[in-house]
C-alpha cells in the first residue's frame, strides 16, 4: 500500500499540466455582450422615440405613423400571406441577381489578375462603370428584355457585378509571392496553385466584395420594383404611396430593414465559417 501510494504521488516541485484550452466556439470576445447590448439599446431607444413622438403629437401621424400601427399592419399582411409573397419575390430577385453576378464577377476578377488581355479589356469598364449609377440602364434593360422579372434580375446582376469583380481582382493581384514561389518550387501546377494557394489567400477580399455587393443588390431590387411596379416590397410601397397609405409605406420600410438585416447577417456568418482558419476569425 505504501509503495503504491508512493508511486502515484506527485513529485514535489513537479509542474501541474495546464488545463486544455476551451474550444474556439466556447470562447467569448470580451465586451461582445456589451456591444450587443448597446446596439439593441440604440434600436429600442429609436423605436420608443418614434412611438412617443407620433402618439404625443410632436410629429404629424400621417407623415410618421406610430410604430405600433405599422407593426399591426405587418401582422395583418402576414396573416393574409401578402407580406410573405412580397418578401419572397424581393428576396428571389435579389439573390438570383447576386448569384449571377458572383458566378461571372469572380472568374472575371481572377482572369484580370492572370491574363493581360482580359485586364486590358475589363479594367477601363470597371473604372467607368463602378462609380456610375447603374439604375440609369434600367430603361435599356426594359427595352431589351421585358417589364417582368428578367429585366429586374439582370439589373441586380449588373449592379452587383462591379464590386465583386473589382474586389476579386484586387484580392488576387496583391498576394504574397512567397507562398506561390514555394508551391512552384515543389512542382505544383498552375491550376493547383490557383485553387490551393491563390484563392484561399484572396478569399477574405473576395468575401468583402460579396458583402458590399449584397446590400447593393437589395437596394437595386427595391428600386426596380418601385419604378416598374408589380408584386414585391418596392411595388407594394409605391402602391401604398399612391393611395396616401402612410402606414403601408412605413410597413414596407420596416420589412426591408428586417429582410436586409437577416440577409447581411447570414452572409457574415458564412464568412466566419469559411474563414475559420483565418486570423481575423481567431481574433
Protein model, in words:
The chain has about 280 residues and is mainly alpha-helical. It has one domain: MetI-like fold (Orthogonal Bundle), CATH 1.10.3720.10. The chain is built from twelve helices and no strands. The protein has helices spanning about 1-10, 30-55, 65-80, 80-115, 115-130, 140-145, 150-175, 175-185, 190-230, 235-240, 245-275, 280. The longest helix has about 40 residues, at about 190-230. It starts with a helix and ends with a helix.
Task: Give a brief rundown of this model.
It is built from 12 helices and no strands. It has 283 residues and is mainly α.
What labels would you give this structure?
single chain, 283 residues, mainly alpha, MetI-like fold, 12 helices, disordered N terminus
Map the helices and strands:
Blueprint: H1 2-8, H2 32-55, H3 67-80, H4 82-114, H5 116-129, H6 138-144, H7 149-173, H8 177-185, H9 190-228, H10 233-242, H11 246-274, H12 279-282
Quote the average pLDDT: 82
Largest sheet: none
SSE-based structural type: mainly alpha
Q: Write out the CATH superfamily name.
A: MetI-like
The counted number of beta strands is 0
The CATH topology is MetI-like fold
What is the percent of helical residues?
over 70%
Radius of gyration from CA coordinates? 27 Å
Query: N-to-C terminal Cα separation, in Å?
Result: 51 Å
**What is the number of helices?**
12
**Broad shape:** globular
- Low-confidence segments, ≥5 residues, pLDDT <50? 1-17, 19-26
Any idea what the CATH architecture is?
Orthogonal Bundle
Order of helices and strands: HHHHHHHHHHHH
CATH class: Mainly Alpha
Percent in strands: under 5%
What is the domain tally?
1
Amino acid at each position: 500500500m505504501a509503495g503504491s501510494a508512493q508511486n502515484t504521488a506527485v513529485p514535489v516541485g513537479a509542474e501541474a499540466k495546464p488545463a486544455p484550452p476551451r474550444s474556439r466556439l466556447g470562447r467569448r470576445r470580451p465586451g461582445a455582450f456589451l456591444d450587443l447590448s448597446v446596439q439593441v439599446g440604440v434600436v429600442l431607444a429609436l423605436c420608443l422615440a418614434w412611438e412617443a413622438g407620433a402618439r404625443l403629437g410632436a410629429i404629424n401621424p400621417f407623415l410618421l405613423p406610430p410604430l405600433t400601427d405599422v407593426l399591426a399592419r405587418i401582422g395583418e399582411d402576414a396573416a393574409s400571406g401578402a407580406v410573405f409573397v412580397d418578401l419572397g419575390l424581393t428576396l428571389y430577385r435579389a439573390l438570383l441577381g447576386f448569384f449571377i453576378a458572383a458566378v461571372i464577377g469572380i472568374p472575371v476578377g481572377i482572369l484580370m489578375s492572370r491574363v493581360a488581355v482580359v485586364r486590358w479589356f475589363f479594367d477601363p469598364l470597371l473604372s467607368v462603370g463602378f462609380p456610375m449609377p447603374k439604375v440609369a440602364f434600367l430603361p435599356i434593360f426594359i427595352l431589351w428584355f421585358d417589364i417582368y422579372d428578367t429585366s429586374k434580375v439582370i439589373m441586380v446582376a449588373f449592379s452587383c457585378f462591379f464590386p465583386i469583380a473589382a474586389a476579386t481582382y484586387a484580392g488576387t493581384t496583391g498576394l504574397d509571392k512567397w507562398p506561390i514561389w514555394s508551391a512552384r518550387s515543389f512542382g505544383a501546377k498552375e491550376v493547383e496553385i490557383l485553387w490551393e494557394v491563390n484563392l484561399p489567400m484572396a478569399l477574405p477580399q473576395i468575401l468583402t466584395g460579396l458583402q458590399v455587393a449584397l446590400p447593393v443588390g437589395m437596394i437595386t431590387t427595391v428600386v426596380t420594383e418601385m419604378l416598374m411596379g408589380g408584386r414585391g416590397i418596392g411595388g407594394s410601397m409605391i402602391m401604398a404611396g399612391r393611395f396616401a397609405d402612410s402606414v403601408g409605406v412605413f410597413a414596407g420600410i420596416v420589412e426591408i430593414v428586417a429582410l436586409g438585416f437577416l440577409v447581411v447577417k447570414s452572409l457574415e456568418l458564412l464568412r466566419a465559417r469559411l474563414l475559420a482558419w483565418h486570423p481575423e476569425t481567431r481574433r
